[in-house]
Request: fold
Amino acid sequence: MNVEPIPLRPNTKRQENERIILKAAEKVFAEAGYGGATMQLIADVAGRPKANIHYYFQTKEQLYRRVVDRIFKIWLQAADAFDGAKGPAEGIGAYIDAKMEISRKHPHGSKVWASEVMHGAPIIQDYLEVKLVEWTKDRAEAIQNWIDQGLMDPISPRHLLYMLWATTQHYADFGHQVETLNGGAPLTDAQWQEAKASVKMIVLKGIGVPR
Amino acid sequence: MNVEPIPLRPNTKRQENERIILKAAEKVFAEAGYGGATMQLIADVAGRPKANIHYYFQTKEQLYRRVVDRIFKIWLQAADAFDGAKGPAEGIGAYIDAKMEISRKHPHGSKVWASEVMHGAPIIQDYLEVKLVEWTKDRAEAIQNWIDQGLMDPISPRHLLYMLWATTQHYADFGHQVETLNGGAPLTDAQWQEAKASVKMIVLKGIGVPR
DNA sequence: GTCTATACACTGATAGAC
DNA sequence: GTCTATCAGTGTATAGAC
Reply:
């Protein structure tokens, strides 16, 4: 069995190639879905022969999992905005900002994640059952604390989280629809600001957080 | 070229068979995506030989389009709840109720629609550009009227609509995630009521509609 | 109308030359 | 490490018997 050599300094050539392939794969998986994506198309987008993709990622599923890994880590990082906040205005406001930025900067990754969950999470169910369950439990408790301190209305923390996820991810996952309804043009900087402000205004007022 | 015979009374045999196949196809497309779905699997779920599917729907794409047609019509029907309402409390409240019911009753169709839009609407772009654009324009104007009458806060009608779509569809499209976070069990009747009430409470208060 | 058998294209993956 | 050539398997779709 061949063992991957472990250089003292990271193998930058390999890292660079993997980066290029992962970027192409994310785009193709987002646009065609897992079943619709082909290794040939990913290779074409990455500008390499198909066999080269198989050299770095043995199977389609391994490549896909790496793509999902990446977006899930970014998704979890947005929680930093949540933590250490003094109260709901700061915490939830910053979380909305962070999630909207992810929708803007990583629309492909967001779609891959959404697609995966929508199809029953056949590949990453372990993430959902462990990491996401823990994450959600912790944040729901944080929200409950704010409620107990009288900083916001006594709403269901869980359903509030769903609303935050749904609303912010809509701008990535349904970006094509939003664009079509915007006259076929992508949202401008000003329109993204307006979107963020609208979401924050409605949600924060909706849960009784003074501005 | 063969022309479909047009019986005076609808061909109920054909209608019944098409209904069964469409139901199976909706489920398979929802769970596997367009590219991941196979005619063989649809045939298996429908309990018929594959060639029979091709007899009623010549190609995979034609079958898919019929599935999308169906959910889009249901989606538009929910607008009835919106129309003829006296004000935002009634109109938007009823619309949320209607959309939540769709998420509950037609989770497969909702996922097919979401998948299609997420992948750039390759099949139904014409719907988006004509029907959905008109629909959205009309409802945005209705909301603007309510704002002008001082019945609600001056928020962006368009972003409010996105929030309504995103939040209500989340319970269908991300139903698997919701279920996982619910301890692996589907939402009970009471939990669906709680979800509906939470969404309505936060949104209506968030846009300044008195309860 | 229905089903079996099959044509034909394309898929993921690998072997082996360089 | 990289690429060409190729394999085994599966996909959509159809021809033709019943």
In short: The longest helix of chain B spans residues 12-36. Chain B has a mean pLDDT of 93. The CA atoms of residues 75 and 102 of chain B lie 8 Å apart. Chain B touches chain A through 55 residues (CB under 8 Å).
